[in-house]
Amino acid sequence: MVRDMTQAVQAYSYAGPSTLAGGRLGLSTSGGTALSGPRTHPRFFSGLLTHAAPAAAGLLAVADVALTRYHKPRPGWTRDPVVTCDGERLRFESFSACGGVYARLDVTGLDGDVLDRGTTNVDVNGPLRESLARVGGSDPLHLGVGPDELTVTTLDGAVVEKKVPLPSRWLRGFAEVQVIAAGWDLRAELAGPHAVRFLRSLPRGARATVWAVPAGRDLRLATSPAPGAVCLSGAGRVATLMPLLRFAKALRVYGPADASSTASAWEVELPGMRYTLALSPEPWRGFSGEGAVLDDLATDEAAGDADVVGMLLNFEPTVELGLLADRSGLPLDRVRAALTQLGTAGRVGYDLHDAAHFHRELPYDKEQVAELNPRLTAARALAASGAVRLLSGDEAEVTTRGGVRRVRIADGACTCPWWFDHQGSRGPCKHVLAARISTRTPAEATL
């Protein structure tokens, strides 16, 4: 991996291209992590997908998100989806090139052998996409994740290598979306016919913003927030849901309690699987800049706790906070902060349907992760330099080259331009973080 200040170049090395022939889908894997540790071309699953056509369409949808830049569309690099096998399902994940759309396909309709548990990247190439698009409703589909005897074409040929730029915001987006989504709840659920009708009624414009308001067993569209409503910012960003409508059994919509908030998630229930899209607050805003992770990362004990909690993760279908707290001896709030820290390294995601975190591994190292939050780095430098003066009550003054900033620690208000621009909607500024770091005593840090 070669790094600079803005992005990494990740080399995906495949033993051969993924293929679909004779009803046998062989997904070629790159380097990854299995239960036994790092592996080259790991093998995870071999068997039948019980619902071939929706699986093919869902895999295409995940790949399409990885290919697309929704904000200021232009040709770019494709990023191969990440797949995690937890023993019960296969999770295929991707992020859009612009960082504002996260997609995941959870396939539970499996009939075969789980060979291992872990995470890797899978090759989705042009010819494979064309083959997947031709899979019909009655076609059998035999899936092999990893190079094995089920792949029809020989894998003895030349290695297929893709060198793909991975901007740091891509990894930051994975971290931010799991923290933000953990605060959302189910706001509406529509049965198949109602779901199809609603989704087909959406405006097609990529920048159109509407609110979905529950109305009995249906949803109606509104142009402004209303009680119980969920915002759909950039309606055109749900385009990958449309090819799945012929299989849709239900639509679930997730969002925060605040109807004026503009981030949301849209989950389509398919036979034997679920397809989920999480959308950033605006088409031009990637998840990477939301700042939801910063308070958890700013605690003195977060990194050490993450090492402890990380050793307890074992690619479980769901991560149970109470069980982690018991095993680690840490209180729940520190377990949550540790999961946030692990999320910045791509090791933890969040499943809205299960309302639980899950374990995965992405190919980033600790040195690179440390560079991903410049606000936090600047805050720690301010606190260490003695720039923070704690005042009586809940206030502090932070001296910077731009002047003295006065902050309210609890609600995160500050007199800096960042606060006036964002009003706390994108996480705390560096001055608030510095003040919060300075309020912690060594005794509190070791509790």
Automatic annotation (TrEMBL):
Keywords assigned: Metal-binding, Zinc, Zinc-finger
Protein name: SWIM-type domain-containing protein
PROSITE patterns in alphabetical order: ZF_SWIM
GO-annotated molecular function: zinc ion binding
InterPro entries linked to this entry: Znf_SWIM (IPR007527)
Origin species: Nonomuraea aridisoli
Occurrences of domain SWIM-type (ranges): 405-440
